[in-house]
Amino acid sequence: LFTEHLTSSGREYVFDFATDNLSELYKILSDDARMAQEIRELTSTDEMRSVVIDNMSYFANLTLISQKFVIPYRGLGTLTVIGPVEQDYQKTLSTLDLLAKVLSMKLMDYYRYLDGNHYEIS
Questions:
Q1: In the chain, what are the domain boundaries?
Q2: Among 7, 37, 80, 99, whose CB has the most other CB atoms within 10 angstroms?
Q3: For 11-113, which CATH class?
Q4: Nearest to 110 by CA among 71, 75, 62, 77
Q5: What is the band of 4 on the pLDDT scale with cuts at 50, 70, 90?
């Protein structure tokens, strides 16, 4: 029905903050399908924004901050930042919120363009 895409950068910087189970964390970060599944499980609430500090899994000593955004006519997408526990949460959350709003507006314009761009050839 749909294809899930995971775009990531800066994976190598996570190891500066993680201390436990580095080999398993590396395996998860290297496997996009597994990483998407982990993000989905940790952010499975109905909330549009969540901050998860999970000391029991591979993400020990890391924070998972996620912001859902509307994909017009399609559903919801998720933006996620994995970082250290000690960080500027206000700055990270406001940046994710702004990015989610801009992304939703751009996608709305894009899909509106696609819907209005039907030409019939006779």
A1: 11-113
A2: 80
A3: alpha beta
A4: 71
A5: confident
The answer to whether 58 touches 25, Cβ cutoff 8 Å, is yes
**What are the structure tokens assigned to 49, written together?**
């924004």
Quick one: tokens of 33? 């399908």
Instruction: Please state, in angstroms and rounded to a whole number, the distance separating the CA atoms of residues 47 and 82.
Output: 18
Q: Which two tokens stand for residue 51?
A: 């901050």
Query: Tens digit of pLDDT for each residue in 6-63?
Result: 888 887 787 777 667 777 888 888 888 888 888 888 777 788 888 888 766 777 778 8
pTM passes above 0.85: no
